[in-house]
Design goal:
The protein has 133 residues and is mainly β. 11% of the residues lie in helices and 59% in strands. Strands 4-3-2-1-10-9-8-7-6-5 form a 10-stranded antiparallel beta sheet. Strand 8 and strand 9 form a beta hairpin.
Length: 133
C-alpha cells in the first residue's frame, strides 16, 4: 500500500492562515509551525492505523474507510467524519462538533512525498512529508 510507512513533515504552505481560520490562537499556531510531526501509516485493506507523534502529543487513530469516527485535532477541536479512498487519494470530510462547519482533507503520495491538503471555510493549506526508513 502506497501510504504505508513512516512520514516526517518537511514543509508547509499556508498552514498558519489555515490554522487561524480554524480559530487556533497565535501561540499554538507558532508552536505548530515547529511541531516535528511524524506520521506512521499502516493500511490493511479498508482498515487504517495511524500514529501521529509531534513535539506536543502522540495519538493513535484507527478507522475503516467509509465508517464515521470521532477525532480530536492537535488543538483540541473535536470533529466527526469519514475517510474514503478515491483512486490513489485518501479523502476526508469532517464536521466540527463545536460549530458544525466542514473541514476537508486529502492525503496522496506524489513524487515520493506524502502531501496532505486541507480546506476550511475557503482557506487551503498543504503539508509535505518525506518517507523515513
Amino acid at each position: 500500500m502506497a501510504f504505508n510507512g513512516t512520514w516526517k513533515v518537511e514543509r508547509s504552505e499556508n498552514y498558519d492562515k489555515f490554522m487561524e481560520q480554524m480559530g487556533v490562537n497565535v501561540v499554538k499556531r507558532k508552536l505548530a509551525e515547529h511541531d516535528n510531526l511524524k506520521v506512521v501509516i499502516e493500511q490493511s485493506g479498508d482498515k487504517f492505523h495511524i500514529k501521529e507523534s509531534s513535539t506536543f502529543r502522540t495519538k493513535d487513530i484507527d478507522f475503516c474507510l467509509g465508517m464515521q469516527f470521532d477525532y480530536a485535532l492537535a488543538d483540541g477541536t473535536e470533529v466527526s467524519g469519514t475517510w474514503e479512498l478515491e483512486g490513489e487519494t485518501l479523502k476526508g470530510k469532517f464536521t466540527r462538533k463545536d460549530n458544525g462547519k466542514i473541514l476537508t482533507t486529502t492525503r496522496a503520495v506524489m513524487c515520493g512525498e506524502l502531501v496532505q491538503c486541507y480546506n476550511y471555510e475557503g482557506v487551503d493549506a498543504k503539508r509535505f512529508f518525506s518517507r523515513k526508513q
